[in-house]
Design goal:
With about 425 residues, this protein is mainly α. It has helices spanning about 25-30, 40-75, 85-105, 120-135, 140-155, 165-175, 195-200, 210-230, 255-265, 270-280, 285-290, 330, 350-365, 375-385, 390-395, 410-415, 420-430; strands at about 5-10, 15-20, 30-35, 75, 80, 295, 305, 320-325. It has 17 helices and 8 strands. The strands form 3 sheets. Strands 1-2-3 form a 3-stranded antiparallel β-sheet, covered by helices on one side. A 3-stranded antiparallel β-sheet has the order 6-7-8. Strands 4-5 form a two-stranded antiparallel ribbon.
């Protein structure tokens, strides 16, 4: 990713942050100049960052020049001491007013002694960070962040955040490489520190490189936040290279024989949501959160499913909100489903995925990468094999970056495919022979 000096990307928006020199900060009334560059485009952000840099340099120069003038007026040549008379105080007031006008806001730090804030420990700062993230993330995402930051905190909990170094990054990276995937699944590991977990992990396997990278990335996000919040000058881990290659682990596509086997058992909990996901390409969470009010009648085009955020679920991306035609095989299931509220009131993602794993085990279906999410890949594969263009399928399954054969990003240049086109695509999807809803 492109880098810009004194700027960083957060939530698709570039933000600028540059600390003021120690001799200028009391006059400015702030430790740093922080502002949004109001763009996600790196070229525009680079231009705007240069403009903010120029304003920063001008403000620092004016502050220093003004301070020198104030000191000259206050100096008494005969006594060799400093005396702050009325003229000097007026000069200070004018200087502060001019600097506040430059910055666009008031400040009273010059009138009071600037007290150095106590440096928080890693444990103290991580608590603040996790409290904020708990309000921003969904439950599953927050659990992942809490686990990663918790590992980091268990190693460096009593250290001041400013004492964390690049060497600490190398040490932490070496430790997480040696962790077992069984951590968290065994009760005795719940309260262990990272070094105890490493010792426990001996001869119990190693977490995948993808998981290591996720932990490393989430800890780096915590340290980046510490920089943004003014506790660090820079993230010391950013110069530690994560050079382990992440191997792709794609989901397996279930064969027709395995789909027949899964549906033939007609599992009381999973049969209907399994059919919904196979014939619409919905994610498990999207199916579990379906409401009766999400079913929209469109006249001669039949019923459509409006996949949208509601009280039961959020969506993965903005592109995930969409209208998907209901397959004719699903219409036969509707009379047995609730007339209002959730269509599957007893289900959530956790129950769906665990029940699917139990079914696989009971049916002795041994295939690496075959999970409930594979139903989505089955739908996409069926679309592909019937000749549906990739960007049409992306519109149906809610993929973010749908592109045409010419590389056009349809989210920008197209209003999307019509309901008639969607209906014709879904009507081509067929369940394997011998399977009935």
């Amino acid at each position: 990713m492109s880098t810009i000096k004194y700027a960083y990307l957060k939530d698709q928006t570039w933000l600028y942050r540059r600390n003021y020199p120690k001799d200028v900060a009391p006059l400015i009334g702030s430790r740093a100049l922080k502002q949004s560059l109001k763009t996600g485009d790196v070229r525009t952000a680079r231009t705007r960052a240069a403009e903010v840099n120029a304003r920063y340099e001008a403000t620092v120069a004016k502050a220093r020049t003004g301070a020198v003038e104030v000191l000259k007026r206050a100096a008494e040549s005969d006594a060799g001491a400093i005396r702050w008379d009325g003229d000097a105080r007026d000069a200070v007031a004018r200087l502060r007013a001019a600097l506040e006008a430059e910055r666009g806001g008031p400040s009273d730090l010059f009138a009071r002694p600037v007290k150095a804030k106590p440096v928080p420990t890693v444990a103290e700062l991580s608590r603040t960070y996790l409290n904020r993230r708990s309000d921003e993330l969904r439950h599953g995402g927050f659990k992942s962040v809490r686990y990663s930051v918790g590992l980091f905190t268990s190693k460096f909990s009593d250290r001041p955040i400013t004492s964390i170094t690049r060497d600490d990054g190398r040490t932490f990276l070496d430790l997480i490489e040696r962790l077992s995937p069984l951590i968290g699944k065994v009760q005795e590991t719940r309260r262990m520190e990272v070094e105890q977990l490493v010792a426990w992990s001996e001869r119990r396997g190693r977490i995948k490189v993808r998981t290591q990278k996720r932990i490393w990335s989430q800890v780096n996000h915590f340290l980046d936040w510490a920089v943004y919040d003014g506790h660090l000058e820079q993230n010391p881990f950013r110069t530690v290279k994560f050079d382990r290659k992440v191997k792709a682990a794609p989901y397996a596509v279930p064969t027709d024989a395995k789909v027949r086997k899964l549906l033939a058992i007609r599992d009381e909990m999973l049969h209907r949501p399994l059919l919904f996901c196979l014939l619409t390409g919905m994610r498990a969470g999207e199916a579990a959160g379906l409401l009766r009010s999400d079913l929209v009648w469109k006249g001669n085009l039949g019923t459509f499913i409006h996949v949208r955020p509601n009280a039961l679920r959020e969506l993965k991306t903005d592109a995930a909100e969409r209208l998907v035609p209901m397959h004719s095989a699903l219409e036969t299931l509707l009379p047995a489903l609730p007339k209002d509220g959730p269509l599957f009131p007893e289900l959530n993602v956790n129950r769906i995925t665990k029940r699917f794993a139990d079914l696989r085990k009971a049916l002795k279906i041994e295939r690496p990468g075959l999970v409930f999410h594979s139903t989505r890949k089955w739908f996409i594969t069926r679309c592909e094999r019937t000749g549906v263009p990739e960007h049409f399928t992306a519109s149906l399954v809610g993929h973010k970056s749908a592109r045409s054969e010419n590389g056009i990003t349809y989210g920008i240049y197209s209003a999307g495919i019509s309901d008639e086109q969607k209906r014709s695509i879904v009507d081509q999807i067929r369940l394997p022979e011998g399977v009935s809803p």
